[in-house]
């Protein structure tokens, strides 16, 4: 028999998939009874899963009214980027102090993948992996967990597919990643942090102009 935590995890993953895939439209009400029946479980793990998704910003919670799928608007993306602007320079600094040769190799592979990418999704996935290698290089999985909650794969792909239509974007992103990787390789923590701050700030400025 599955433990309660396991059922909650399963409910969380399945509802998250439905939301991100668009099977449940933005703004739609998430009826707990219907979801429980759809997933073949009780309402309790569904409710706990919805609370977790609410904490991530994927679901809006209204006291005494229930849960709705969040709109995931550009404003929401910018709020997440604002947090990344505070978080990722610190990650880059720690990565420069703690990285291994394996991490450097993984950074180079991610950069090469992005450089050779021919679709927006491929460029996005390689770019995202670069940032996550840095987070793993800190040796603190909490950084990875927080970054994962801020940078949703499906949302990122949709946004980057729009930005990738700008011819200069991909080359600039690759170039900035190479500079950060070099600073990390040289253990220049302050430089890595400053370069990362400029890198994320450029994304913030880009999407602010699109609002």
Give a quick summary of the entry.
It is built from ten helices and three strands, in the order H-E-H-H-E-E-H-H-H-H-H-H-H. It has two domains: 4-69, Arc Repressor Mutant, subunit A (Orthogonal Bundle); 74-209, GntR ligand-binding domain-like (Four Helix Bundle (Hemerythrin (Met), subunit A), Up-down Bundle).
Strand content: under 5%
Mean pLDDT figure: 88
Number of domains: 2
Uncertain runs with pLDDT below 50, 5 residues or more? none
The largest sheet, given as strand count, sense and whether it forms a barrel, is: 3 strands, antiparallel
**CATH overall fold name of the largest domain:** Four Helix Bundle (Hemerythrin (Met), subunit A)
The tally of helices reads: 10
> Percentage of helical residues?
over 70%
Q: Main sheet: which strands, in order across?
A: 1-3-2
Gap between N and C termini? 49 Å
CATH architecture name of the largest domain: Up-down Bundle
CATH class label of the largest domain: Mainly Alpha
Shape: elongated
| Alpha-carbon Rg, integer | 19 Å
Task: Give the H and E element order.
Answer: HEHHEEHHHHHHH
Number of beta-strand segments = 3
């Amino acid at each position: 028999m599955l433990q309660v935590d396991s059922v909650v995890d399963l409910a969380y993953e399945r509802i998250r998939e439905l939301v991100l895939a668009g099977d449940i439209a933005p703004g739609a009400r998430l009826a707990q009874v219907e979801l429980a029946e759809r997933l073949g479980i009780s309402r309790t793990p569904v409710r706990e899963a919805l609370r977790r998704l609410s904490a991530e910003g994927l679901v809006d919670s209204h006291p005494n009214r229930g849960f709705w799928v969040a709109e995931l608007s550009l404003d929401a993306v910018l709020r997440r980027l604002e947090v990344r602007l505070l978080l990722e320079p610190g990650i880059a600094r720690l990565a420069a102090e703690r990285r291994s040769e394996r991490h450097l190799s993984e950074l180079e592979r991610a950069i090469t993948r992005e450089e050779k990418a021919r679709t927006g999704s491929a460029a996005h996935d390689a770019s995202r992996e670069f940032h996550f290698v840095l987070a793993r290089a800190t040796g603190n999985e909490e950084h990875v967990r927080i970054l994962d909650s801020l940078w949703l794969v499906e949302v990122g792909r949709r946004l980057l597919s729009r930005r990738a239509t700008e011819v200069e974007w991909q080359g600039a992103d690759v170039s900035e990643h190479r500079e950060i990787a070099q600073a990390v390789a040289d253990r220049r923590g302050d430089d890595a942090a400053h370069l990362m701050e400029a890198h994320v700030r450029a994304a913030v400025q880009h999407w602010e102009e699109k609002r």
